Amino acid sequence: MPVRSMTGFAQVTGQVNSNLSFSLSLKSVNHRFLDLHFRLPADSDALEMKLRRKLKEHMARGHVELTLSLQSATGGNFALNRELVASYIQAYRAAATEFGIEADPDLNAILRIPGALESATLPNDSDLDIVVLSKVDEAVQRLNEMREAEGQGTGRELRNLMKHVKEACQKIEKHRQTTLKTYAEKLNTRLQELIGSQIEPERVLQEAALLVDRSDIQEELVRLDNHVEHFMGLLNQGGEIGKKLDFLLQEMNREANTLLSKTSGLAGEALKITESGLLMKSDIEKAREQVQNLE
Fold first, then answer.
1. Other beta carbons within 10 Å of 26
2. Is 14:69 a contact under the CB 8 Å cutoff?
3. Which among 232, 219, 62, 214 has a CA at the least distance from the CA of 147?
4. Residue 12 carries which DSSP code?
5. Residue percentage of the chain with pLDDT more than 70
6. Please, what is the Cα angle at 12 between 10 and 18, to 5 degrees?
7. Cα–chain center distance at 196
8. Nearest to 42 by CA among 143, 126, 113, 131
9. Gap between the Cα atoms of 87 and 93, Å rounded
10. Full-model pTM
């Protein structure tokens, strides 16, 4: 399955009967999980459950809004729910009498009550469910086509950013020997200070081990290279890889921070390591922004 973005839009239309048609739209944006929201005609709870199951079969992540609108071919779209309206007016007047309030019910407020107006052309539930569900697959396919097209663009950008990270690692590797030489000079100076002060041999060994441990960035470079290769492999694999890529980028950022901390305070040519490391961190952050929108 191709890499998908979580951003997309699709709309389909259908015919319920000779007098009633509908439009069904899907809009999705990024989200950590699959977050489904529905805007349906009143009393569509059973249809909502069926639509929810359908969407879960084809989508893994994203904030998804499904909107179903009904359109009648005639002007008589609505009918008054007389029983509901009469009950409301009766309760309103009983409350006004009980509390001694002189007021008449507001018709505009009454008609905004859910169920006060009913579609005069609404078919029975089974007919509506059948025709709407028959169009959901088409809507999801169109949505995913758009998400895949955007995912391809994001994939190209991510590959380019990982290329920059790899190039930065190669530049840092070239300057690594300079870093080791600088630390060797610092180690020699420190050892001369300690020996001149007649410090115990164990203390000298501790200082030497500490400086040697801080001096080499080879491990960070190797791990960064491995992470980049794993990242590219996931991109080529496709599918639901957004969370995995985000985790790898967190690890890359951690290695870059360690690398920079090991080379902090160095002067001369070794400053180029800091420069490349900062550019690397910038590219990693750009990649993280892009990955947040992948399924």
1. 22
2. no
3. 62
4. E
5. 79
6. 165
7. 60
8. 113
9. 10
10. 0.69
50: Cα within 13 Å, side-chain hemisphere = 17
250 Cα distance to chain centroid:
15
Helix (H/G/I), strand (E/B), else coil: 41: coil
Enumerate the H helices of 10-124 as residue ranges.
Answer: 45-58, 82-98, 107-111
Q: The tokens of 87 are what?
A: 């009950």
Segment 199-250, tens digit of pLDDT: 565 665 565 556 555 556 888 999 999 999 999 999 999 888 999 999 999 9
Helices (H) and strands (E) in the chain, counts: 8, 6
| Tokens read off for 1 | 């399955």
Answer whether 9's CB lies under 8 Å from 26's CB. yes
Determine phi and psi for 65, rounding to 5 degrees.
-115, 125
DSSP letters for 65-88: EEEEEEEESSS--EEE-HHHHHHH
What angle is formed at CA 244 by the lines to CA 242 and CA 249, rounded to 5 degrees?
Answer: 95
Task: List the domains of the chain with CATH numbers.
Answer: 8-77+115-149 (3.30.230), 78-111 (no CATH), 151-291 (no CATH)
Half-sphere exposure of 236 (CA within 13 A, CB side): 6
